[in-house]
Amino acid sequence: MLARYDQAQAASPRRPETSVAKAGAETRLGRWVAGELARRGITYTSLRQDLALNGQSFESTMGRKVVVGVVGFLVGLVMAVSLGVAGLHLPVGVPVVVGLLLAAAFFFIPDFDARSAAARRRKEFKRALGAYLDWVSLQMSGKAAAEQALPDAAKIGSSWPLALIRHTVINATRSGQDVWMAFQELGDRIGVTQLRELGTLVQLVAHDGAQVRDTLSARAASLRNEELADAEGTAGKRDQSMLMAQILLGVGFAVFLGYPAFVNFMSI
């Protein structure tokens, strides 16, 4: 993730100083808000996982939420005052209520954006994880040790999920950390339960290479079945949408044909 983020930063054009200053102000504001929320026991665990998967900062996102919330409050006030100026008599306090409602709506916009982006990226990561586990299992079937198969299998592609896995494996190896525990921590950080469960299961059988290989194969098969079930569910929803569209088209065509006869009948 860090390598992908650094590469994206290097490839992106240099931002103007005003944008950098604005981002820094949002980060400082978000850091203060995050600290206040943490003292009250509000951790935003799910949002942190989504942002980590998207390569975004939690502090800057919290600052952005506050900024857009204030903007929503001001927009609500302006709209309510404009209606009053136009001649619509509003009860006292309505502009504040409208402003607060819009502020709440605007405040959660960054959450929706982060969750929708993270949902797409999480599916992509799970797809790559299944292929990676299959390749590790295949290499271990060829008598390769897990310590050798794990980094070698991560080199089969250059996509960001494999880059993230490779980065995790290399860092764990260099720091002397158990790779399976590193995978468990990565699953916690980005909200991929399959990866967290994989780390926990393999740690229980890490002394037996055959059981590790079987566990990896079973987890890869589970990921494929889950992806297949998700694809079938999506296809079913699209079939229902097409059926509803066909029904509405048929009803509209029937109304189009029957309307002249109905008008002639009513005019008699």
Our count of helices gives: 11
Beta-strand share of residues: under 5%
Tell me the major beta sheet.
Answer: none
Structural class category: mainly alpha
From the alpha carbons, calculate the radius of gyration and give it in angstroms.
27 Å
Q: How many E strands?
A: 0
Which percent bin holds the helix content? Answer: over 70%
Task: Write down the overall mean pLDDT.
Answer: 80
* Separation, N- and C-terminal Cα atoms: 75 Å
The secondary-structure element order is HHHHHHHHHHH
Written overview of the protein:
With 268 residues, the protein is mostly helical. The protein folds into two domains: 91 residues, no CATH class; 107 residues. Helix content is 84%, strand content 0%. The longest helix is centred in the last third of the chain and has 59 residues.
Summarize the structure.
The chain is an all-alpha fold and 268 residues long. Helix content is 84%, strand content 0%.
Q: Key terms for this structure?
A:
2 domains; disordered N terminus; 11 helices; single chain; mainly alpha; 268 residues
List the helices and strands and how they pair.
Blueprint: H1 2-11, H2 17-39, H3 45-54, H4 58-85, H5 94-107, H6 109-141, H7 146-153, H8 160-175, H9 179-190, H10 193-204, H11 209-267
Helix pairs in contact: 2-4, 3-6, 4-5, 6-7, 6-8, 6-11, 8-9, 9-10, 10-11
